[in-house]
């Protein structure tokens, strides 16, 4: 049996540095940071003389609420305190909240993203906690997917999942656990997003006990799909709000496909 690599939580502060270059678009790159680290953004020689302004949509305080379109201008730090030379200036972004964030800079004195001269992205990794005091390193995640609808009653789940524990998995991905379409029984055709699949013969409280047991005894974390954009034909959402989905009224170009689908259904 393999063991799960874990790390005791620490507040060790590390610094990662990005060097900006004029006209450089790093949209295809992403820089990974851990919570508690500091991201420093410095200037290359060809930007050191520019009146550069840097903006980011990252949360700068842990209590801040993330809004993707809400940008903050970053304050410059001047380590040398030079009167005539500030080429060593930089800005800092604390890694306080997990997520993927964007930064851009301008050299014409403007603030708008339309006038950017360069940009990039960085990611602050979420912390996956086991038993509230151990952290599962993301580089060591070994995840197994299971068909929830095939697990049977909840009182049999742990015995069925135990093989994953002995095989060295440290995360289980459950397909949707909600009430499924009675015709197809597809895992992603959901009839009611609020009701558990009755095949489980259990409750959300019992499900929580199973998830907690997996984490505490086996150090296995859990994840499941939230497929709000998947709905069965008899879903109340579609019945009460048909405008929420593609239909032949708001999408008349689908009529040929619907006709073909109906014909195929008659033959199958």
Automatic annotation (TrEMBL):
What SUPFAM superfamilies does UniProt report for this protein, alphabetically? (Trans)glycosidases (SSF51445)
A UniProt-annotated Pfam family: hGDE_N
What's the domain of life for this entry?
Eukaryota
Where, by residue number, does the polypeptide cross the bilayer? none
Whose protein is this, by species?
Answer: Adineta steineri
Q: Which InterPro entries match?
A: AGL/Gdb1, AGL_euk_N, AGL_glucanoTrfase, GH
Please give one Gene Ontology molecular function term for this protein: amylo-alpha-1,6-glucosidase activity
| Span of domain Glycogen debranching enzyme glucanotransferase | 135-267
Query: Could you tell me what this protein is called?
Result: Glycogen debranching enzyme
Residue span, Eukaryotic glycogen debranching enzyme N-terminal domain? 49-131
Q: Which GO terms describe its biological process?
A: glycogen catabolic process
